[in-house]
């Protein structure tokens, strides 16, 4: 052995454990900071449905983690024609234009029809009954002005990191929007 | 007693690793298949709005056959009209595309904003309805006049020419404006008036059309009531016909018909949206036959009636009739014109 050479100092077991603990601690702090930063970013956004992309596939009613979906039908009254024969309210071939269950499209009777003046009627959604199936939305969009559309209601939504409806959304209509502007509402210039 | 594990050879290690990887691969594939199966299940919509049975037309009712089809060159076609020598005029985003009867381009007239409706005089003078006013072009396509705006919520969707008048369907104000050929507004037809027993037009969306029939009466669509109303040019309501029904003899959906045209024999061609179909009715409103049913407009039928909320609805059909009684149908979604003649 050459006495001039500098042999590497031996690492004692104590030093090794100390260094290991330090490294683990630093890594933990990094991971913690990352998680906090990520959570802050997620807290700034919420899930919402782009009504222009929605294809009324029915998955909103069946794929939410909640027992009753957080997705509800909403109504843009400014767009509505207040029609006597509302294709969002009535079956495609109703027997009569009245509120009889056999004539109504909604499977849970969540749409309320109110007479305004001849020949206009107003249609309101009872969100406690609405299951977000979009049957009325399809009827309204196919024949009418599209004033009925689906939205994620944020008084119900759990804002899951991975929304189970978004995973199966046939129109790829789910996206995150700023929590400060949580709804994507329809407007019309006519 | 201390137990000793037998040493594992490299060969054993590799062999066990391969087995483990294989098991993992099988499990992963099974999970993938399960997820795909779930997606397939969700494709069958338990809440489907089913109008499938209405989308097929009884062949016995189809009395017309397609003889030609061509694509419209301009973007966003909305209405069509036939002019002198059966030239085809199509209102588009840029103005009006002029085509020969086979669809060959003859020219283009550029308007100041998207053209929404049009009428062509026998001398080739072109009247173009923009959103809130009318622009006039001579037969060579030169600008001849820009008429004053009618005011209010004017949204023009249909024009019809009389001998001395131009009638403009204003869906925004729910009436028909009567102008003389110089652009002077002389009357409003279809406006609610109890003294004249006019109930007023119901126009839930920007679809209102007018045509001047051979009997000298205007025919105006009343889409909210699912009927066609006949007015004198002075604005008296004479009679009406039509009923709401998805069945073939009625007008479907919440607001139809969306377009009208007169046949040389005094009958009328109607166009509907939602269930896109073109039909012929007698002068008294008796349903006669189908020109083309929903199966002829598959893309249009899929798309529904709403697809441009910023600029009104644009999911409809339009029809015009040539000098031989052939019907030209514009499919706004497919951006094509079909020529149909009566089966012999």
User: What is the straight-line distance between the termini of chain B?
Assistant: 105 Å
Q: Which residue ranges of chain A are poorly predicted, with pLDDT under 50 across at least 5 consecutive positions?
A: none
| Radius of gyration of chain B from CA coordinates | 28 Å
CATH architecture of chain B: 6 Propeller
Question: How much is the average pLDDT of chain B?
Answer: 90
Span from first to last CA of chain A?
95 Å
Backbone shape of chain B: elongated
Instruction: Please provide the count of β strands of chain B.
Output: 24
Structural classification of chain A: alpha+beta
Question: What is the CATH T-level topology of chain B?
Answer: Neuraminidase
Number of E strands of chain A: 6
Largest sheet of chain A: 2 strands, antiparallel
State the helicity of chain B in percent bands.
10-25%
List low-confidence stretches of chain B: 35-42
Q: Brief description of this entry?
A:
The complex is a heterodimer of chains A (190) and B (344). Chain A is an alpha+beta fold and 190 residues long.
Description of the structure:
The complex is a heterodimer of chains A (190) and B (344). By secondary structure, chain A is an alpha+beta fold. Chain A has 2 domains: 12-43; 45-178, no CATH class. Chain A is built from 4 helices and 6 strands; from the N terminus they run H-E-H-E-E-E-H-E-H-E. In chain A, the strands form 3 sheets. Chain A has a two-stranded antiparallel sheet with strand order 1-6. Chain A has a two-stranded antiparallel sheet with strand order 2-5. The radius of gyration of chain A is 28 Å and the shape is rod-shaped. The mean pLDDT of chain A is 89. Chain B contains 2 helices and 24 strands. In chain B, the strands form 6 sheets. A 4-stranded antiparallel sheet of chain B has the order 1-24-23-22, with no helix packed on it. In chain B, strands 2-3-4-5 form a 4-stranded antiparallel sheet, with no helix packed on it. A 4-stranded antiparallel sheet of chain B has the order 6-7-8-9, with no helix packed on it. The longest helix of chain B has 34 residues, at 10-43. The termini of chain B are far apart. The interface between A and B is large, with 39 and 42 residues.
């Amino acid at each position: 052995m050459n006495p001039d050479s500098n042999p590497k100092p031996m690492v004692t077991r104590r030093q090794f454990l100390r260094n290991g603990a330090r490294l683990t601690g630093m890594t933990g702090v990094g991971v913690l900071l990352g998680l906090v930063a990520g959570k802050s970013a997620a807290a700034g956004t919420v899930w919402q449905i782009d009504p222009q992309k929605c294809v009324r596939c029915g998955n909103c009613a069946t794929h939410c983690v909640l027992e009753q979906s957080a997705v509800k039908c909403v109504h843009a009254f400014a767009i509505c024609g207040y029609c006597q024969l509302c294709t969002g309210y009535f079956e495609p071939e109703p027997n009569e234009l009245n509120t009889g269950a056999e004539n109504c499209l909604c499977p849970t009777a969540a749409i309320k029809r109110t007479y305004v003046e001849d020949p206009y009627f107003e249609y309101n959604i009872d969100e406690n009954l609405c299951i977000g199936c979009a049957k009325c939305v399809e009827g309204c969009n196919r024949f009418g002005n599209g004033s009925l559309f689906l939205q994620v209601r944020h008084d119900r939504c759990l804002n899951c990191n991975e929304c189970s409806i978004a995973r199966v959304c046939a129109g790829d209509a789910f996206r995150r929007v700023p929590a400060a502007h949580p709804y994507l509402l329809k407007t019309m210039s006519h | 007693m201390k137990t000793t594990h037998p040493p594992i050879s490299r060969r054993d290690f590799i062999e066990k690793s391969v087995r483990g990887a294989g098991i993992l691969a099988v499990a992963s594939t099974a999970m993938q298949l399960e997820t795909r199966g779930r997606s397939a299940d969700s494709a069958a919509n338990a809440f489907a709005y089913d109008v499938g049975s209405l989308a097929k037309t009884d062949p016995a009712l189809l009395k017309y056959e397609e003889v030609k089809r061509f694509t419209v060159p301009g973007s966003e076609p909305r209405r069509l009209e036939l002019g002198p020598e059966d030239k085809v005029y199509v209102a588009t985003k840029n103005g009006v595309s002029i085509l020969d009867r086979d669809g060959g381009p003859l020219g283009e007239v550029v308007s100041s904003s998207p053209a929404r409706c049009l009428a062509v005089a026998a001398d080739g003078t072109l009247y173009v309805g923009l959103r809130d006013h009318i622009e006039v072009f001579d037969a060579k396509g030169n600008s001849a006049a820009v008429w004053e705006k009618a005011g209010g919520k004017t949204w023009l969707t249909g024009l019809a020419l009389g001998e001395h008048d131009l009638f403009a369907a204003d869906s925004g104000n729910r009436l028909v404006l009567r102008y003389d050929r110089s652009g002077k507004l002389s009357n409003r037809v279809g406006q609610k008036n109890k003294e004249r027993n006019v109930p007023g037009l119901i126009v839930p969306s920007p679809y209102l059309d007018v045509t001047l029939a051979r009997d000298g009466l205007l025919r105006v669509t009343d889409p909210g009531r699912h009927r066609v109303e006949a007015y004198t040019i002075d604005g008296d309501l004479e009679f009406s016909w039509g009923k709401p029904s998805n069945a073939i003899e009625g007008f479907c959906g919440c607001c139809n018909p969306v377009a009208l045209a007169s046949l040389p024999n005094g009958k009328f061609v109607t166009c509907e949206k939602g269930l896109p179909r073109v039909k012929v009715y007698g002068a008294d409103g008796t349903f006669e036959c189908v020109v083309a049913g929903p199966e002829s407009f598959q893309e249009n039928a899929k798309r529904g009636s709403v697809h441009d909320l910023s600029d009104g609805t644009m999911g409809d059909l339009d029809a015009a009739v040539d000098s031989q009684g052939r019907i030209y149908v514009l499919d706004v979604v497919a951006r094509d014109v079909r020529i149909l003649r009566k089966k012999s």
